[in-house]
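This part of the workshop introduces the protein records we will be handling. An example says more than a description, so a record of this kind follows:
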Amino acid sequence: MNNRTKWLVVAGVSAVALAATAAVGVVAWQQYQTRQVAPSAAETTASDDWATGDRVVFRNTALGEGYGLVASVPLAEPSGVRALTAVACDRVDATPEEFSCLRTERGVVPSYSASLYTNDGVVRQTWPLPGIPSRTRISDDGTRIATTSFVTGHSYATIGFSTETVIHDDAGGDFGNFEEWTFIVDGAPSAPLDRNFWGVTFIDDETFYATAGMTNSGKTYLVKGDIPSRTLTTIAEDVECPSLSPDGTRIAFKSVTAGSGPTVHWTPAVMDLATGEVELLPEPRNVDDQIEWLDDDTILYGMPRDDQAGDYDVWALAADGSGDPAVLIEHAWSPSVVRR
């Protein structure tokens, strides 16, 4: 086979591969469009009052009209009619005045972005993401917005995944990729290449907790971050996707209890920050989510439904390990509890 023939073969194979990729994109787009126009599987209403009172804000995953839109239900009536916004998000977090939205712009070639919205749907700012949206959190005062997206891989069970985690401020600036920050492991600076970060939970507008993963050793740490000094310091091992309790005394997180890589099994757990004691909670299923606190006694997390791809439920579980998991909101994902 001469060089010209070889190049023709390579070109032909490349053309077939590109055509197949485009076809997959077109099919995915058509499926998404179909989900958007069918009758909704949940009782919904379009309402300008969606952001009033104590509520749970979430991504509506009920198939049909309104799929993927940010929605809310009253905290006192989580199974009631959900009020829909006109904003579609993959991940959402909310405060009384605004919400953070991570979005996949679907098409033949997808793109990814993050936006900060006021409750009336006005975009305060927006910025691109380098890959698939993963996590977002807003500080209680609304001045700090954290985002995590996948640079490579598509889940935390993917071998060799890489993330980008950045904190923006509400004026449009940011504090840089965490991989550029000083990382202190057991009191000593870590090599700049052997690290990966995700899953921010804010303490206040200057400090937060997050996950650090060591690429070579496979270890994960709970780290405390300091924004003014751009420093991340390890404080505990084997903690992923932390979430600080409303009273500030505990961290809820997902703990590896079996397997690794694509066979990993995560179990919800709660750590007492004063003592370091950890309690695994009675949830037999694999929970790959950043937990949200309903109140000081109950945690929330999303679980995929067995009967429909792309659909989820939000489950509630007692933080002290008493009682079994129970569905709080059907057809919902990425819950955020907002109290006035």
Q: What stands out?
A: The radius of gyration is 21 Å.
